[in-house]
Design brief:
The chain has 768 residues and is of the alpha+beta class. It is built from 13 helices and 34 strands. It is globular.
Length: 768
């Protein structure tokens, strides 16, 4: 069978765009990125940034001799204390005449802290977080100081505090995941610098090497500093510089908000009191979190509450699209993070609205006015107080998410999807792409005109995004074959029998007539088409829903819904027109910086089997192995479509890559929506109609790209476009936005470390 016959319909559409130059794909709704919503998302990101840093200091559990995690301490039931450094059952383990025992007790003067450099809202600063909930024991040998022992140091990561309550919440929730990994542990294995004679009150320079465990990662680190001992107490200050990337918690890069360095300084300031051998370990490391604290008096009900209830609460409420990020259920919830709300709204990070003033005015502009921002800032500057009870509910006055009529509410045909889990209940993989079948009811046998569409997630904590495909009746046999093949794989690998099939990137179906019709990411509104327009599903058409699940600790059964608002017989009789959705694919060629290229070349020369991914050809080979034979062809086809070569596109200005391509419009009518799509290296985007002419008109300008917010923008005014009109598509990428431990040439493809310059223009054809 020739290779092109094995391509799924999505790739055939790409080929058609490149070779034929025309393709009429149905409208894609807002589908890319991980989108949270409203005021919290923004602030969340703030926390995320510094939180990730904390991760390095905090969360962890013991690893056993086999290198596995001891999950008995993930969620603690009884009192938690640090392990003793002395074996009290072994008489020879401690000499009371020549040794002293010192104990670190939680909240008794000791502190663990992190320092990290970040660029927050455009300003560089050092962020610090601290906790006093730490414990451990130290045995000092007075006759042989080098024989002194430092026991395991345990830190409660739930208790880290910075200058932002919301940041601390996000650290706990998204990065340290401290509800499952409450403690970080440092197990010393050697001490250097104690080769002098002991003298009370003398300060010694020391280096303590040991194993630092953060969540499931354990690495060897060395802390350096000083220690001083008196008959009653021991004090020590030691620090280590570690990489957040080593512990998979950074560096953090959140567009328009915060960027952190990879290096974080972890410091233990230890104050240990002398204790008697055999004394009961003191100081339970468990703590309860106070979510609000003390709330001052202040003006809120008439100034800030209406803004939050109009702009934020419809998303940030328990059960809403952004509740898992942050719920503003009560006035107290808002007061607890007043400064954070003022910051993210002040810099325009929340509510999220990316288009600049060069763009047309769009429907559903979420941005705040200057007066609204000023009101929030004045409230926060005055202390973020309340003139209502903290328990006063915040109730949305405007619904940002407008539901469609539920003519059909369609669950997955073959039942709930649970995901693959290990015997202990933990996920087999954290990112799972699954295609599931939804059957469309067609009682009259004449198909359905869809005039409104909604994807409604069931398990919002794990559903990351969805891409929905129309699958014709003729593909039914291939669908069943896909499911049967997946069943065989599951049986062979000892996995649970789950509905549907694994489908990274696209649907995995090769049948003619399969194409994307909709998509969803958190916080995005359902799609409602103008009167008289819609999508037509023929008799027997199915819907295949590709859902990206992101699992942390468990795999809850998910039965997400497809909601269709279908046209009535009278509406169909009055005349329905199929909306035109045209996709435009343009090059993405971002080479390594000279510094990255030098690193990769040196590794290739010195490491056996190392593949230099700064070489474009090597990246294309990797893409082909990862996806299929067609994937490596896409970058060159895009270059040919735009009449260019690699040399014309692979230039950098510092770390910034750029692509520009003019293509003719493929449909005639009134523009309904425009969309730009890039991945996480995206820096800026622009779409221009009639470029370099007197009629030049910017259709979409996003000067600071944000992967989390990729929306279909609907102009308020009618903008005319004709088939053949020239449209310029421009994309900018910044290599520094995502940390890459192995530098690589970036080109057009589907993976996170690949890029795209993808655009869509939905057009309402003229009514005749």
């Amino acid at each position: 069978m020739p290779w092109w016959r094995r391509l799924d319909a999505g790739r055939v559409a790409i080929l058609a765009v490149l070779v034929i130059g025309t393709v009429a794909l149905l409208t894609r709704s807002q589908w890319s990125g991980t989108v949270e919503t409203a005021v919290d998302v923004a602030v969340d990101a703030v926390d995320i940034a510094v939180d990730a840093v904390d991760v390095a200091v905090d969360s962890a559990v013991d690893g056993n001799e086999a290198g596995e995690i001891d999950r008995s301490e993930l969620v603690t039931g009884g009192e938690v204390v640090a392990p003793p450094v002395v074996d009290v059952d072994d008489p020879e383990d401690f000499d009371v005449e020549t040794e002293r025992l010192y104990r670190i007790v939680p909240e008794s003067g000791s502190r663990a802290s992190y320092h990290i450099q970040e660029r927050l809202g455009g300003l560089s600063r050092t962020t610090v977080g601290t906790t006093g909930v730490m414990a451990g024991e130290i045995a000092v040998n007075l006759t042989d100081l080098a024989a002194s022992r430092v026991g395991e140091i345990v830190v409660n990561v739930e208790m880290f505090r910075s200058d932002s309550a919301l940041r601390d919440k996000r650290i706990r929730h998204d990065y340290l995941q401290s509800s499952h990994w409450p403690f970080v542990r440092f197990r010393p294995t050697s001490i250097e610098g104690l080769d002098a004679e002991f003298a009370d009150g003398t300060s010694y320079d020391i280096a303590i090497t040991g194993e630092l465990t953060v969540k499931e990662t354990t690495r060897t680190e060395t802390f350096t500093g000083t220690v001083s001992v008196t008959p009653d107490a021991l004090t020590a200050v030691v620090s280590a510089t570690v990489l957040t990337s080593d512990y998979d918690v950074g560096p953090i890069n959140i567009a328009r908000l915060v960027h952190t360095s990879d290096e974080v300084i972890l410091t233990f300031e230890m104050v240990a009191d002398r204790v008697d051998l055999g004394s009961e370990p003191a100081g339970d490391l468990r703590r309860e979190i106070d979510p609000t604290g003390d709330i001052a008096k202040g003006r809120f009900a008439a100034t800030v509450q209406p803004i939050l209830e109009t702009r934020c609460v419809s998303c940030h409420t328990t059960g809403g699209p952004a509740w898992s990020t942050l719920a503003l259920d009560t006035a107290g919830d808002a007061a607890a993070i007043a400064d954070d709300i003022a910051f993210v709204t002040g810099i325009g990070f929340m509510p999220p609205w990316l288009p600049s003033d060069l763009s047309p005015q769009y429907v559903h502009d979420w941005s705040l006015s200057d007066d609204e921002k000023a009101a929030i800032k004045a409230w926060a500057d005055a202390g973020g107080g309340l003139d209502v009870r903290a328990s006063t509910p915040l109730v949305a006055r405007v619904q940002a998410i407008i539901p469609v009529e539920e003519d059909q509410k369609i669950g997955p045909r073959d039942g709930l999807y649970t995901g693959y889990a290990r015997p202990d209940g933990w996920p087999v993989k954290s990112d799972d792409y699954r295609c599931q079948v939804h059957e469309v009811a067609d009682p009259e046998g004449d198909g359905n005109w869809v005039k409104g569409f909604e994807f409604r997630p069931d398990q919002v904590s794990v559903v990351h995004h969805s891409i929905v495909y129309r699958v014709p009746a003729a593909a039914a046999a291939e669908v069943e074959a896909k499911i049967a093949a997946e069943d065989r794989i599951e049986a062979a690998e000892g996995l649970s029998d789950e509905p549907g099939w694994t489908c990274f990137g696209l649907s995995g179906l090769n049948s003619e007539g399969v194409y994307s019709i909709q998509g969803w990411a958190p916080g995005q509104s359902p799609t409602i088409y103008p009167d008289g327009y819609g999508l037509y599903l023929a008799p027997g058409d199915m819907i295949v829903n590709q859902i990206h699940y992101h699992y942390d600790h468990d795999t809850p059964p998910d039965g997400s819904w497809i909601i269709l608002d279908t046209a009535t017989a009278d509406e169909v009789a009055a005349g329905m027109i199929h909306i035109r959705g045209n996709s435009y694919l343009t090059p993405a060629e971002v080479p390594c910086t000279p510094e990255e290229a030098a690193v990769a070349a040196e590794r290739a020369a010195t490491i056996d089997g190392y593949v230099d991914l700064c070489v474009r050809d090597n990246v294309l080979v990797e893409i082909g192995e990862k996806y299929d034979a067609f994937a490596p062809l896409i970058p060159d086809l895009l270059l040919a479509q735009c009449g260019g070569t690699v040399d014309a596109y692979d230039h950098l200005e510092g770390s910034i890559g750029y692509s520009s391509c003019d293509l003719p419009a493929r449909s005639t009518g009134t523009i309904h929506t425009v969309l730009g799509h890039m991945h996480e290296f995206g820096a800026a985007y622009r779409m221009t109609l009639h470029p370099d002419t007197a009629e030049e008109r910017v259709l979409l300008d996003i000067p600071v790209w944000d992967f989390e917010w990729q929306l279909n923008y609907e102009p308020v005014e009618d903008i005319r476009i004709n088939r053949g009109d020239m449209v310029r598509f421009e994309c900018w990428w910044d290599r520094t936005l995502i940390y890459m431990p192995e530098p690589r040439y970036i080109t057009w493809n589907e993976g996170t470390v690949d890029e795209m310059c993808f655009s869509s223009i939905a057009v309402l054809p003229d009514r005749t």
